[in-house]
Each structure stands twice: as C-alpha cells, then as structure tokens.
Amino acid sequence: MSSNYKGYMGKVLDINLSSGSVGEYEISDREREQYLGGRVLSTKILWDILEPGIDPLSDENILIVMTSPLTGTGAPSASRYDISAKSPLTGGIGHSNSGGNFGLHLKKAGWDGAVIRGASTEPVYIEIYEDDIKIKSAENLWGLDTEKAQEAMGKGGKIVIGPAGENLVRYSCVVSQERVHGRTGMGAVMGSKKLKGIVARGKKKIPIHNKEKFRKTIKKWSKALVEHPATGDMLKKYGTAQFLKPLSENNALPTKNFTTGSFENFDKISGERLADEYMVKNGGCVTCPIKCARVVKIDGKEVKGPEYEVLCLMGSNLLIDDMDAIIRWNYELDLLGLDTISTGNVLGFAADLNEKGLWDSGIEFGKKDNISDILKMIANREGIGNDLAEGVKSLSDKYGGKEFAAHCKGLEIAGYEPRAAMGHALGYATANRGACHLDAGYMVYMEVTAPFTIDPFHLRSKPGWVVLDQDFIAAIGAAGNCLFSAWSAIPAFAFKLPEHPVLSSIVNKLMNMSWPMIDLSLKFQKYMRFHVPDLPNTKAICEATGMKMYFGNFSQVGTRGYNLERLFNLREGIGKNQDTLSSKFTDVPLPGSKSKKPVDLESMLPKYYKLRGWDQNGIPKKKTLKKLDLDFVNLESI
C-alpha cells in the first residue's frame, strides 16, 4: 500500500522463506502516523502476526527489518533502522537499533522495510534490487565471519550474521559494515531461518514533502550538533569511551561482575588513553556530523575501535586493564557476531561462579590469555561455549548464583552500576527488552555524567523522569535518529557549570525538585502542540513527511510503542514479577557508595506504574489503552 506521506517509500516487503513467496505487507497511513517506523511500527506488526507462546527459534517467529521516515533523508544521525522479532534470549519483545548504511540502501531500493517469515532448509541470503527480489543460496557464505560475508555479497547495503548467529547463540548479533545490532539475539533468529544476510541496492530517491524548509532545518541542526560541547567536542574527541573515567570516579563503573563501582586501573582503558595512543581517526554512521566512532589499527589494518560498553564489560568487569587485548577482542566479537555487552557479562558471571566454587570453567578475573579462544568456543558452541552461549540467566539456572546474576528479564545488564543511579536502576527493571541502558531511559547520564545532575539517590524524582526518557528515546528511534542527535537540547552553557560549584549545586537541587513539572507534562502530553527549538526532530518530520507532528504527539508515539511492547510481554507471561533486579542490587549496598541503601524498587515502582496509567500489577488500564488508541487489545486475554 503506497503512502500519501513523503519520507517513506510506501512499501514493505513480505517474504516467506519456507515457501519462497514474495509480496507486500500493507501498512496504512494511520499506522504511520501512530507508530512512525523502526521498533515502534515493528512492535505493531509483531503484535498483529505472532501467536503467543511460539518458540523464538522456530519458523513461526518473524524477523522485521524496519527503517523510519528520516532514515536516509540526510537528516543528521538519521541512518538508523531497527531489527525486531520475539527474542530468543528473553522470550519477550526483541528489537535492536543500529546505524550502518543498510537502511539507506533499502529505501533507495524502494522499500521501507521487510517482514520475513518461515525458514529455509538450506542457507540463503536475500537480494533486493528495487522490485527484483531473489532468495539465493548462501552455501558459500555459511561459516564466514561478518566481514568476509559482506565482502562476498557484492555491492549495496548489507546485513549479515557471523558463526554465532548460525549456531543460534542466544545473544548473537547482526552486523552492517562495522555497525552492530547487538541486543536481544536477532542474529540467532536469522540463523534459525538459515538466513545469512540481506543485500539491498537501488537508485530510487526518497521523496521529501518540503525540500527547501527541510534542507534549512537539517543544515541548522547539523551546525548545532557540530558546535555543541557534547556532540561537537567531547563525543568527537573521545566517543562514548569518555564516560569510563567519570563513571569510575563516581562509583558507577561495573567492576568484577558488578561487585564494586570503581576500577583502580581505569586510566589504562579510558577514552582519553584510547584517543591519545590508539585512535587513527574518527569514524561514524552515514549522515552523522558527530563522528563518535574510534578507528584504530590491528595488524596494520584500520578497524572500528571499542565503545564504552566494551572497555567496561571486557575490561573493568573482568578486572582486565589491557587496552591492546580489549581492542582485539572487540574486533573478534564483531567478526563472530557476538553482542559485546552480553558477552562481557557472561564472562564476568562465569568468573564469579569460578571464584565461588560453583563452576570451574577456566574463566577467571584478570585472566586474559584464553579469552579469544573462549569467544570462538561460544560462537561455535564448543565445550564450555555451549553453556556460555545460553546467557547469564541460563547459567544461573544451571550452576547457581542467581543472587549475583546481572540481568533483567534474561537480558544482560549494560555497563552501568544500578546501585549508583536509582533512576537508571528503575529503568533497567522496567525496560521492555530487559536491562538495556537505552530502553531504560539512559537516566545514568542525568544522574552521574551530565554537567548538571539529579541526585542519583533521590527516589521521588525518578519515576517521572524514567517514563519521560523511555518514551522519548523510543520516539527518537521510531523517527530514525540516533539518541545523540537530541543532545543539542542541553544548553551549551550547562557544560560550564562544573567550573562554578555554587551555581552547579543550586541547579542540581532544582533538578531534584523538577518532578512535579515532569509528572504534569506526562499527564498533558497530547496537548503539547509545539516544536521544542533545540529538538528539531519534530520539525524535520513535518517537513520531510507532511505529517502534523509536534512534541506532544511525537512523545506519544514513544508512549504508545512502549505500552504495546509491555502488552506483548504480558501476553508472553512477562510482567510485574520480572520488573526487578537480582538481590545483589536490591539487598546489598554498593561498596564505597554515598548511599548506604541498595536499589529500592518497591518505593519507585508504584509511582512509575501510576504515571504510566497501569494498575498495581503493572497492567495498562483500559482508559490508558483508549487514550493511546490501543483499545484493539483485549486485556482479558492477557
């Protein structure tokens, strides 16, 4: 079904690998208005198609690749697209957002996305050349790493899996160029379908509703990002690795499987050292003016350097301070198609099991000489790798240690210590896909690393901020932007506040008292019919598509998507009982913390549920569904 809105190509592929049939999946313009694209639109499709209780690794699961209205338009940091399915790691909603150039090439081929059903009996890949769609043999590609597979697939944008996806590692990822869809095991879903990859190319132009206004908006937006101290200076200099030092200094850096929050040798794996001694140049996604990626050399070859999460979870979390080793592991993880966040957690948990005498795997804190071999064992499910490939939750079920297993809903925790930031902890516990820092709302930034912060241990301020951030991040992803594109909303002068301690203290105290305004804004969300000057996302959507999109209904796209993800999980039996963290975080205070209390979810969850319009059991109320146009959901069937 074509669209009256620009920005979209107006068509979504519908491919069945079991039958070999190719058609179109119909999406109405009303659905585009309500869900925009990316993970939010994909969740609606998953809800409509999937029956509850299906095995995520069976041919009944579907894989959705979905772009967004700003993907490929030239808007800054708008190369993003999403891959979604029922997660083989959590059994709930699965989605993973990334850059790379595949989304751009898919739209240039004339398609906004693809719904992939069934499973092939033999390895295949899909070739999309505008309206010429072919399912081709991948016998010669099967077994190749993600770099060699992409090289062999020819011209165009590509997504591929590595050996980990082929062998159904539950946290295997999907790779495009050097950008990675890391979380929730989308690589395993592709592997279960015997789908090695997809290549897309074409010469179609993405239509723009008001070309002149759109051009001016994105030019001004890009200029603001380049000149901003966060996106134009710090991210360009140090990338996400800039966070490692302040997190360690503020006791929020996961160390020794989240036992402590600071690492004695953090300077050896810091973003500053990476930039000063290893970085060759900046890299980044298509149409991104920020260029936060690090480019380093391995054996004389220029490759993508490690992000913060790798430096933390393969470094401090394992008590390893060898930058050269971490750089090499980062490259090996991408070649094998393994999620770096989950892998670092799995190795940390295995080392903790070993130290406590629960499982002698040969993995030890501080031991690095066998890591590369273990990564290959995980990807190929050989020896101990077969257990490690199942993830932290499965390991704790089999060998014990549930009280110190760092996961939520089965997804391993990202690289931020929950006990150092109560809002971030609440976000982890309530995030629909599990303990993801982005789905959580990325509150640790507002609590620890931002130039002005909310007291990380001030509980009353957190529920509203978490809801606001979770919904807004979902909306940004649905539009096709990277989260960093929204950092321009933080006034540049704020980054000078740390130089003025008294003023900084006053601003921080005001932030603690901001919760009534935040709670009120959530209540009157739909009435906010205006653009926020320093958040050009909504204006760009209007000019690109012709939609009437303002801050209020844009945020409501995220709210609607977040609620539908919650409903999907509830339908799969994932609800209030899973909105929690292991007892290490809820019962044991963090050593060296300014607060003597661990994470107090019981104080925050009731208010969080109320602000979301959910009942005391975390189930959306009928009036909430009606307000969000989700009243097609039958609550009695959940």
Describe the structure.
The chain is an alpha+beta fold and 638 residues long. It contains 26 helices and 17 strands. Helix 12 runs parallel beside helix 14 (371-380). The longest helix is centred in the last third of the chain and has 21 residues, at 551-571. The radius of gyration is 23 Å and the shape is globular. The mean pLDDT is 96.
- Summing up helix and strand content along with how strands pair, one would put the structural category as alpha+beta
**Major beta sheet summary:** 6 strands, mixed
Number of strands: 17
Question: What strand order characterises the main sheet?
Answer: 2-1-6-3-4-5
Approximately how much beta-strand content do the residues carry? Answer: 5-15%
Quickly describe the structure.
With 638 residues, the protein is α+β, with helices and mostly antiparallel strands.
Keyword list:
638 residues, alpha+beta, Aldehyde Ferredoxin Oxidoreductase,  A, domain 1, Aldehyde Ferredoxin Oxidoreductase Protein, subunit A, domain 3, Aldehyde Ferredoxin Oxidoreductase Protein, subunit A, domain 2, 3 domains, 6-stranded mixed β-sheet, 26 helices, 12% strand
Would you spell out the secondary-structure blueprint of this structure?
Layout: E1 12-16, E2 21-24, H1 29-35, H2 38-49, E3 63-66, E4 81-86, E5 93-98, H3 102-108, E6 113-117, E7 124-129, E8 132-137, H4 146-152, E9 157-160, H5 163-166, E10 174-176, E11 179-181, H6 186-192, E12 195-201, H7 211-227, H8 229-238, H9 244-249, H10 271-278, E13 281-283, E14 293-298, E15 301-304, H11 308-313, H12 323-336, H13 340-355, H14 371-380, H15 385-388, H16 392-399, E16 407-408, E17 411-412, H17 422-430, H18 443-449, H19 462-479, H20 501-512, H21 515-523, H22 537-545, H23 551-571, H24 583-587, H25 601-612, H26 622-627
Parallel strand pairs: 1-6, 7-12
Antiparallel strand pairs: 1-2, 3-4, 3-6, 4-5, 7-8, 9-12, 10-11, 13-14, 14-15, 16-17
Helix pairs in contact: 1-2, 2-19, 2-23, 7-8, 7-22, 12-14, 17-19, 19-21, 19-23, 19-25
